[in-house]
């Protein structure tokens, strides 16, 4: 068999029309030569041991509403895997909060989704997924990392209206009213008994004039 050189990659070639599921081991010989000399190397392998899928694609992690310790993770089978129905893959998921260095792992026999149920509330997580043929081969490299933070309850906005306390202010004035000047009433000076005629301060003057007139008449006689 001839390994055809890959036009896109310098150090890669492809072998077409291999006998799949063969129990015969394969031997690959690579030789190189230049002006300084020639060299060759060979390896032998079993096709079942070298099956290695590409990493899963489109890994997405989302918070689960009203669940502060859950994250929902989904992904897709690598597009380079030829027939997922005939050659199913199993998956290996790892995750950790950014505040810790230790990973937690979950192996899944099928499916392309998983719900993390033991996340730390409010902490950002990093999640990666690897894939492997269900029967043979080795695990793929880790996928591109997805990041997510579990759901957290939004703070409630409380509206408080401040009400001024009802206060009653009683003011007592100690100032006496200004004095009122008035002419005395005879009723107020007497022994009481009802209203009387006003008291005239001209009475003594009238009495004096009457006495003077009597004296003048006696002198004329």
UniProtKB/TrEMBL annotation:
<dbReference type="InterPro" id="IPR003961">
    <property type="entry name" value="FN3_dom"/>
</dbReference>
<keyword id="KW-1015">Disulfide bond</keyword>
<dbReference type="InterPro" id="IPR036116">
    <property type="entry name" value="FN3_sf"/>
</dbReference>
<dbReference type="GO" id="GO:0004896">
    <property type="term" value="F:cytokine receptor activity"/>
</dbReference>
<comment type="similarity">
    <text>Belongs to the type I cytokine receptor family. Type 3 subfamily.</text>
</comment>
<dbReference type="InterPro" id="IPR003530">
    <property type="entry name" value="Hematopoietin_rcpt_L_F3_CS"/>
</dbReference>
<dbReference type="InterPro" id="IPR050379">
    <property type="entry name" value="Type-I_Cytokine_Rcpt"/>
</dbReference>
<dbReference type="GO" id="GO:0005886">
    <property type="term" value="C:plasma membrane"/>
</dbReference>
<keyword id="KW-0675">Receptor</keyword>
<feature type="domain" description="Fibronectin type-III">
    <location>
        <begin position="55"/>
        <end position="155"/>
    </location>
</feature>
<dbReference type="GO" id="GO:0098552">
    <property type="term" value="C:side of membrane"/>
</dbReference>
<feature type="region of interest" description="Disordered">
    <location>
        <begin position="150"/>
        <end position="189"/>
    </location>
</feature>
<keyword id="KW-0449">Lipoprotein</keyword>
<keyword id="KW-0336">GPI-anchor</keyword>
<keyword id="KW-0325">Glycoprotein</keyword>
<keyword id="KW-0677">Repeat</keyword>
<protein>
    <submittedName>
        <fullName>Ciliary neurotrophic factor receptor</fullName>
    </submittedName>
</protein>
<keyword id="KW-1003">Cell membrane</keyword>
<feature type="compositionally biased region" description="Low complexity">
    <location>
        <begin position="160"/>
        <end position="175"/>
    </location>
</feature>
<keyword id="KW-0732">Signal</keyword>
<dbReference type="Pfam" id="PF00041">
    <property type="entry name" value="fn3"/>
</dbReference>
<keyword id="KW-0472">Membrane</keyword>
<dbReference type="InterPro" id="IPR013783">
    <property type="entry name" value="Ig-like_fold"/>
</dbReference>
